[in-house]
Amino acid sequence: MSCTTCGNLGSNCSCSDNCPTKTSDITVFDGGFNIIEVPCDASLNDVLTLLESYTTNMVAELSTMTSVVIGAENCIGLEAGTYGIQQVIDAILVVLCEIPSCPLYVGITNTAVNTLTANPSGGVAPYTYQWSIADNDGDISFTSGTTGVSVTMDSTPGTNVFGLVKCVVIDANGCLASDVFLWKNPKLPT
After folding, report:
1. CA angle, residues 93, 95, 101, in degrees to nearest 5
2. Cα–Cα distances in angstroms (integers) from residue 133 to residues 2, 82, 116, 164, 175, in the given order
3. Residue 90 domain-assigned (yes or no)
4. Are residues 117 and 156 in the same domain?
5. Residue 81 CB neighbours (<10 A)
6. What CATH number is associated with residue 144?
């Protein structure tokens, strides 16, 4: 059967039959590309039923698989060859467990007059620091370097009395944490 009119309600044909500009078929992958043809007048329930049937068949196919072919270049550390499914799963789990977690945290405190200090916790020392003015406010600035654990702020009175100061901390494993601090400058005398 073929469609004479695309979108013809009550027909049992796919919208793409004789209607090359209309795409409503669903393409799915199960080792090769397959098409589930959805009739133009299919309800959402009809589509869900088709997908459920397809998924059930795909799971049945996976349960009968006994081996997996692994290529030479892969991210799970196996040599090229044919492996049992459990071997592949085990290799994937090993790689996942080796991914370092990043339990690095940092807080900024006003430790002395005009001085902000980053307080990292967790992670692996040594830490590197990079301070910046987060909102690029010209009325606040640093009077010291911006790569140490602490920075000194310029407290010259300005017309804008506040700005965000940001510190990014990176640990020895490359984990990153950041915090911001609301710095307040004194107001201009009136």
Report:
1. 100
2. 67, 55, 12, 6, 22
3. yes
4. yes
5. 12
6. 2.60.40.1080
Amino acid at 74: N
Report the pLDDT value the prediction gives residue 170, as an integer from 0 to 100.
93
Q: How confident is the model at residue 105 (pLDDT cuts 50, 70, 90)?
A: very high
Q: Is residue 190 part of a domain?
A: no
Residue type, 147: T
pLDDT of residue 69: 82
DSSP conformation letters of the chain: ---SSTT-TT--SBTTTT-TT----EEEESSSEEEE--BTT--HHHHHHHHHHHHHHHHHHHHT---EEE-SS-TT-PPSEEE-HHHHHHHHHHHHHHSPP---EEEEEEEETTEEEEEEESS-S--EEEEEETT--TT--BSS-SSSSEEEB----BSS-EEEEEEEEE-TT--EEEEEEEEEPPBPP-
pLDDT digits (tens, 9 = 90+) for 71-97: 777 777 888 888 887 888 888 888 777
> What's the whole-number mean pLDDT along residues 55-68?
72
